[in-house]
TrEMBL record:
Residues 15-187 form the Alcohol dehydrogenase iron-type/glycerol dehydrogenase GldA domain. Transmembrane segments: none annotated. It holds the Pfam family Fe-ADH. Residues 246-383 form the Fe-containing alcohol dehydrogenase-like C-terminal domain. This is Iron-containing alcohol dehydrogenase. Keywords: Oxidoreductase. GO terms for molecular function: alcohol dehydrogenase (NAD+) activity; metal ion binding. The keyword Transmembrane helix does not apply. The keyword Oxidoreductase applies.
Length: 404
């Protein structure tokens, strides 16, 4: 495996330990052993994968790399729900797992992270919900996270998104026990990624990057990480194209930077709006964030002393946005917003309908999420509803991933 400079990169100091390079999955056994301590026998590993794992060209490579361990495969199809997490936690307990290995997109990683954190005792869907409401403390099983789509950042964050579909609410399980011990970033796993998945993933990364920069909870490191994510994606933002080896590395690294950024500062109003878009309209997470990214960028760039929600003042907000603008090579916030809109228009993301008629409800529900309170410029329900109706072609919006 070709280990990159990431092992010494100051931007990603601290957990998880990162291995990055083409062919990285070949070192999964080493990653597992570094995550597990105090066992002389071969470890028992619960391998959590997505529904398409059996068809992936690298499936056998993953299984062969894990062969020194006693492996049990668990499939996580679709969105992570309390029921899914309880099931996976039960499988980990039944297998007496020492480690959980998550190979897949953000939904797979979030379900695996939550199950690992909550697997110490018998788990029900109800207890999963309660844990999401109160947080998790104490150690869980270590997780080795191997993302196969870029942009979610789930391999870096101490939280996991769980969808309570029945009650139409998005939950978040939080705590250091949820953060993976090791992240294996193998650009080769992104080969053949469909255009809609790629577009959604890039939008998720872009939203995370700028939101972690302008958040009221941001610091210098989250601003630097957010800007670095945009810098990695600057050329792809203007010229979407099939990914070669260099581009695959760039999008994977950008997603990891953005994941570390939101682990510090969280997200803001783009993500708050994305949750009702997902729950009410079935819009996949990445493009749901991307749909509102340009208008929210313009809104926050116009912050004033009178409506600034950041106690550090509007100049800090404008400086954070300026850092992202410079990293992306744009001429200003409006130019950057136009580039995001052009990316959306040129993408392979599917149309979304009915947003205009539902704008008031989407806005009201968005404000119920704590992400909204981290936005650096004050927003209320009427303002958010107006923002939703300014989206281009509001009844045939284009967009398409996973939630943070």
């Amino acid at each position: 495996m070709s280990i990159s400079r990431l092992s010494n990169d100051a931007l990603i100091a601290g957990p998880p330990h990162v291995l990055m390079g083409p062919g990285g999955v070949a070192d999964l056994a080493g990653a597992v052993m570094s995550a597990v301590s105090g066992t002389a026998r071969p470890p028992c590993a619960l391998l959590v994968v997505g529904g398409g794992f059996a068809r992936r060209p690298w499936r056998e490579q993953v299984l062969a790399a894990l062969r020194p361990a006693a492996v049990r495969v668990a499939v996580q199809p679709g969105m992570p729900t309390p029921e899914c997490v309880a099931r996976l936690a039960g499988e980990a307990r039944a297998h007496r797992a020492d480690v959980v290995v998550a190979v897949g997109g953000g939904s797979v990683m979030d379900a695996a992270k939550a199950a690992a954190a909550l697997s110490a005792a018998p788990l029900s869907a109800e207890r999963t919900v309660q844990a999401c409401e109160h947080g998790v403390s104490g150690p869980g099983l270590p997780v080795v996270a191997v993302p196969t789509t870029p942009g979610t950042g789930a391999e870096a964050t101490p939280f996991a998104t769980i969808w309570d579909v029945e009650r139409r609410r998005k939950l978040s399980l939080r705590g250091e026990a949820v953060r993976p011990a090791v992240a294996v970033l193998d650009p080769a796993l992104l080969a053949g990624l469909p255009g809609d998945q790629l577009g959604a993933s890039l939008l998720d990364t872009l939203a995370q990057g700028v939101e972690a920069a302008w958040s009221t909870r941001s610091d210098e490191r989250s601003e630097a990480l957010g800007a670095a994510a945009w810098a990695e994606l600057a050329t792809l933002l203007d010229r979407p194209r099939p990914l070669g080896p260099a581009e695959r590395r760039a999008v994977l690294l950008a997603g990891h930077y953005a994941g570390r950024a939101i682990a510090i500062a969280g997200t803001t109003i783009c993500h708050a709006l994305s949750y009702p878009l997902t729950l009410r309209h079935g819009v996949r997470h990445g493009h749901a964030c991307g749909l509102t990214l340009a208008p929210v960028l313009r809104h926050n760039a116009a912050v004033t002393e009178a409506d600034c929600a950041d106690p550090r003042g509007p100049e800090r907000v404008r400086a954070a946005i300026a850092g992202v603008v410079r990293a992306a090579g744009a001429d200003g916030p409006d130019d950057l917003a136009r580039r995001v809109e052009a990316f959306l228009a040129a993408s392979d993301l599917p149309p979304v309908t009915g947003i205009r008629d539902d704008a008031d409800r989407i806005a009201a529900e968005a404000l119920g999420y704590d992400r909204a309170a981290s936005n650096p410029r004050h927003v209320d329900a009427p303002a958010l509803a107006r923002l939703l109706t300014t989206l281009p072609c509001p009844d045939r919006l284009r967009g398409g991933g996973h939630a943070r």
